[in-house]
Amino acid sequence: MGLKVGLTxxxxxxxxxxxxxxxxxxxxxxxxxxxxxxxxxVLWPPPAVITMDDGRGQLGAVGIPRHRARGPERPGVxxxxxxxxxxxxxxxxxxxxxxxxxxxxxxxxxxxxAARMTTKVFSFVLARGFGDAVLRGRIQVDAPAAxxxxxxxxxxxxxxxxxxxxxxxxxRANRKPVLQxxxxxxxxxxFAKVGINPLTRRLVRAERAALARLEQADLADISLPRVLHxxxxxxxxxxxxxxxxxxxxxxxxxxxRLAAAMNAVARVDGLHSGLLRGSAYLRQLRxxxxxxxxxxxxxxxxxxxxxxxxxxxxxxxxxxxxxGDWAPWNMACTKRGLLVWDWERFTPGVPFGFDALHHRxxxxxxxxxxxxxxxATASSQSxxxxxxxxxxxxxxxxxxxxxxLAELAxxxxxxxxxxxxxxxxxxxxxxxxxxxxxxxxx
Length: 442
Prior knowledge:
By secondary structure, the chain is an alpha+beta fold. The protein has helices spanning 26-43, 97-105, 113-127, 150-158, 198-214, 255-266, 280-290, 296-311, 354-364, 372-381, 383-387, 394-415, 431-439, and strands spanning 7-8, 22-23, 49-53, 77-83, 91-94, 138-142, 163-167, 178-182, 188-195, 222-223, 227-233, 236-241, 272-275, 316-322, 331-334, 337-340, 347-351. The strands form 4 sheets. A 9-stranded antiparallel β-sheet has the order 3-6-4-5-7-8-9-12-11, sandwiched between helices. The longest helix has 22 residues, at 394-415.
């Protein structure tokens, strides 16, 4: 399902910005359209009929005249527009322009200030009725009255009529449809994650379990989504979550407050100390790595873990829980509190400090920042300074930093991120060299 997608982005304070956002090559554009069609056919299965207009005059069998694709013309017909860019793959939004404007405004996945500016521009343009300047493609779904679609299913779950906006994310093994569920005014009602393959179905179930556990925890300074519904539909795993107000104005997040929040998550199931050698964590990490494809990357990482275990001696680490993907784009500091979402990788029993290391590394990998190998090497070498606020000694921090990189490399190998086309998805080019380089110093 992983399809390589690329867009050239230009951010200006003008409605003309959308017209200058173009695909990097016809092949990438075709791959994106194919993936989008595949997902739509899963969410709106037969007998629903899906017709796509890519904005270049290449229409489906029925065709959608662009000036008419504004909204449902009869019961069972849903019209959508594609909003390009936003620093990431496009959004699928309802073609009703006031709803589309609200859907873009409430989109919370922007990674950069430029992307957030583009969001505001597109929302402004759509709200004033200039949809053709923003919507660069159209999709029409024609479903008979008795047909079951993701829209009819979610409307029944929530007990109200809804409109759907969809974000597919960049190519990666864990890519899945994320649906924003809106009322007729375009206000967010909820979000839905849909697992469409074995990995994403497992991750959706994991997030449901994590949120159920965290709901019982004392995380006073953290607001997280509530589980509204979880079930299977047409072989898909569907998780419906409450909407956290990540679109509200951001506030500066003091490092001490972020550290305190990560500390609270680590203590959800309590902290415990123990030797690295023979630990449950190291055993589980090795078991996961053993399930990855055999090859030089797996062998090099297994050597590093064996060497760490042999030479760790009496080194004891503190173990607790971690979010698993606490990146800058999975959180927001607002006047309503610290909002944190995407808990599908939440795991107990890992070395204390993983969340802080992950947050720093992901920030360093942002656009215009360090190259991946340099960032990974720096992450390990700066672990002592970064983890000092958590009371972690220099020696413990070094082992924790190397193990974090090995943890991430193992995840990428087991999930086969490279073959899915994920950015930085090949750990043999950056994560594993950083790990083996540090371990060779022992």
